[in-house]
Amino acid sequence: RDRPIFSIAEAQAEIGGDYGAVLQVLRRLARAGWVVRLTAGRYAIVPLSSGSTTAPQVNRYVIVRELLDPAPYYVSHDSAMDIHNMLTRPVTIVTVTSPRRLATREILGIPYRFVYAPPAALWGHTLVWVTPYEQVVVSDLERTLLDGLSRPDLCAGVSQVATALWMR
Fold first, then answer.
1. What is the pTM of this model?
2. How many CB atoms lie within 10 A of CB 70?
3. Is 12 exposed, middle or buried (0-12, 13-18, 19+ CB in 10 A)?
4. For the chain, how far is it from start to end, CA to CA, in angstroms?
């Protein structure tokens, strides 16, 4: 289906059979290096072009979308600044705002930080293409600056937010 990330239920729909059998097949594929388990129930396909390394070629922001689906979310703070080309430094942590309370975790060597916000506070976001084929929900420019000013600790300080404003 041209999706690099899939759930156990999606695999069961393709393979057929009962849940336990599909889970066993996915475990074997993971041991063999054909798929990588991202979180409970979510796997990423490792393409043949990755060679001997078992690293899927999946955008880090697409992983966020797949982890939180169907819950509302948006990529925020310094990660949104990165997507909007408002930074002068690389971003090492992916920051996401969502009404789901999730702990910070590391997936495929990338730390993911989740910021809680009530559903009424999820405004000012838009769909943005992060790969030629994949879109994710990202805070728009104004919301990105407001998030940065409200939580400068998540954006490397007020000076980085001022630099982002100057750049845009």
1. 0.81
2. 5
3. middle
4. 37
**pLDDT at residue 50, as a whole number:** 57
> Percent of the chain having pLDDT more than 90?
43
58-85 pLDDT per residue, tens: 888 998 998 888 889 999 999 999 999 9
**Structure-token pair, residue 104:** 């910070």
Cβ neighbours for 22, distance < 8 A, ≥ 6 positions apart: 8, 11, 12, 15
Specify the 3-state DSSP secondary structure of 113.
Answer: strand
DSSP string, 39-102: ETTEEEE--GGGTTS------HHHHHHHHHTTS--EE-HHHHHHHTT--SS---SEEEEESS--
